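Q: Entry one of two.
A:
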Amino acid sequence: MKKESIVAAIEPAVNELNLFLEDVIITLAGKHSMLRILIDGETGLSMDQVTEASFKISEIIDLMPEIGQTPFTLEVSTPGAEYPLTLARHWFKNLNRLVSVTLLDGEKFTSRITSVENDEITFADAKANVTSVKISDIKSAYVEIEFK
């Protein structure tokens, strides 16, 4: 199983559903493999959307000759909170959410996304301090889980 060939085969079908292919993760465990496909949309996905994508992806992968007789488990899901915010659309989707950010210079902070414009993210913390940062200056960022 090669990631590149799987991406090339399934990405058009995912895009037809107006979704994004975030990642393909292949985990080998002896004679069995785990194929994890992460999809996302402009907004949160419903279970029906994930199910529809899962059926389409499964049909395509079952027909791929390079998969052959290799037993595998297919998991189609959305990225969880552990998945980093890397693209502008990730930031738009999480507008007003609390995020933990590490900048390239090592500075770390946790703050709420208040706006996204071009390559710049504006944050406001609990004390109403406002900070603007270019996406290119961010080393890593993750959504913080909040319980209200």
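Q: Entry two of two.
A:
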Amino acid sequence: MKVPLLDLKPQYQQLKNEILEVTEEIYESQYFILGPRVAALEEDIARYCRCSHAVGVSSGTDALLISLMAAGIEPGDRVLTSPYTFFATAGAVARIGARSVFADIDPDTYNIDPASVKQVLSKMAPSERASVKAMIPVHLYGQCADMAPLLEIAEEENLFVIEDAAQAIGSEYRGTRAGAMGHTGCFSFFPSKNLGAFGDGGVVTTNSETLYEELKILRVHGSEPKYYHSTIGGNFRLDALQAAVVSGKLKYLDDWTAGRQRNAEVYRQLFRDAGLEAHVTLPLERENRHIYNQFVIRVSSGRDDLRQFLSDAGIATEIYYPVPLHLQECFKDLGYRKGDFPVAEHAAETSIALPIYPELTDDQQGYVVEKIKDFYA
């Protein structure tokens, strides 16, 4: 049996006629950049995320970058974030000339640990601590970070909060949607995301009217009005085609999320029935709406051998993420060493993502767990 990590073809077949119709309209209009399709998506995303505004941008990475620009982060400033996430989080900080300051993660949720953030701040010299200007909590794998204590720290330290919600559209923390808690929220429409475009795309959410206006200016090279520049922005515009695809998919998102949540429960039952508790640690649902962008388990031993064993059986998996950011070669100038963030390092060595997409069948999930049981037997 073949079990892909993600199969988008069934989703496309469900939407094919709608997608072809709307893209044909765009071809006829020849209106490809920003415009009414992007404006409509922005309204829909703001409503879905239960916040005041949304600004469509060219990618999730650029959503982070433009948020840092709107926050006024400059070379020499420091930004608190997690060492266990996709590269774009710290990459955007470096691109703007600032320095990432990492804090370790919670062992159960993989999200940044507020206690570690406090500890990191307490150990900084006064001058260094004063240079910390922002925090980027990441809502990893579809579950929100523990935002209440993080927001409390941010208020005490006067930090601009950028939610990296690239994997978390629709997830909630104590009833509040991802992207509605910080100063800005950053989402990705990369095709593999729960809500994916047919290429790159992203959006920034905010409850601030001032930030909303600034973000719109920054995404068009800082131009307001056209050809007049009081600030330097960039080309962060969203294509109308991508906006139309995402808009078409958005109305199905809650159904797809329910499918992922159902599949997570099926996995839990299958693992319980298989008696694999000694070998496999399942994801912990700490918050009230986990959307399962990924279903990541930790294993007691032999992670890489298990992955090869599953691959040989036709089961695709992924390692998110094999090298924490503080140990990446390009960040060696930050001065971190192996052992600095042991929880993140342990996660990188023992975790593996299993297929979780909505169209996954019970038979496929049963096959995945059966093969994991075979491996440990």
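A: Comment on entry two: The chain has two domains: 9-250, 253-376. The first strand starts at residue 53 and ends at 57.
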